[in-house]
Design goal:
Length: about 400
Amino acid sequence: MSITPLMPVYPRCNVRPVRGEGCYLFGERGERYLDFAAGIAVNLLGHGHPHLVRAIQEQAATLMHVSNLYGSPQGESLAQRLVDNTFADTVFFTNSGAEALECAIKTARRYHYANGNPQRHKLITFSNAFHGRTLGTISATDQPKMRDGFEPLLPGFQVVTFNDLEAALAAVDDCTAGFLLEPIQGEGGILPATPEFLKGLRQACDEQGLILIFDEVQCGVARTGTLFAYEQYGVTPDIMAIAKGIGGGFPLGACLATEEAAKGMVIGTHGSTYGGNPLAMAAGNAVLDVILVPEFMEHVQRMSERLRASLEQMIPNHDELFDSVRGMGLMLGLKLKSDSRAFVAHLRDRHGLLTVAAGDNVVRLLPPLVIGENHIAECIEKLSAGAKDYEVPVS
Ligand SMILES: *Cc1c(COP(=O)(O)O)cnc(C)c1O
């Protein structure tokens, strides 16, 4: 038998973390890594944050799981806080981002069904998008590496070019339910939507009774310096999927919606055994305890300005390799002039810096939001040193 016990779907590297402390990860042999990957935008508070750890420990000892057949004081409190701090009136909790998107897609379809327009089932989605790995969410992307061999996929999605408002509006027909997109594409290469694009989609939704769904699984939860990225655009969705950062490392996602958009989601239409369990709610509440303090958001903004300025300053010194910086807040992409995967591996193996490769030759910098100036200086040092002793692989 040659297959590994862990199904071999990931190209796992030789870093084998066994412990985390703040912004650092430690491998089996004690090697230390500066973690600017943060579990792909998950570990908002770094590793081992005392408030999050204590909340999980205490809740685990008190009550870990009960069925959604019972009332949920823990869920009510987290849902209320999300409602108080966003556009939303109601929240469904999930265990992952893809599940949050599944709920968002179902909510949009069900809205039109409840309105007597069941033919309006089609979501317009965008090139380069990533929404997860379930059959529903891979149906919403056009990337062959995620779709090949899994057909037939879910009907009812039409992919048009990201940031092309005209193409999006032209795709609307009698069967359209709405639009689904990431305000800032993550896996696709840290590509922010243009404000005109989001405003145009919002306007079309208002005029034609369509639903605007934002996928803020990666860009949400303070990552960009506001609680959610949509705030900076001044464009409000009807439905929003979140996950990653909201649990700070504990598996937690949520689908947020306005009362109007959620009108079809009545008793019996959706569910999840684990979704909203007390342990996950404790983790989410603990993360919000930390990030809803105004000084925390100011810290994120200050650190993101510092990181961005430092990166911009560094680029001209290595302009054979580095092209530009893009993104928002602490969701930054360093665009290279060649493929980013080999450089990400070089930074990791030779310089102890963890980053994440993304589409379009981008190195993603997604540090814990609790980084300090010392971590930024160390990151820049490692990037510069890495650029110096890096040999661009001949392809
Ligand atoms: C990670 C991600 C998802 C999927 O989340 P999972 O928890 O892996 O299911 C969906 N959308 C975006 C934008 C993501 O970054």
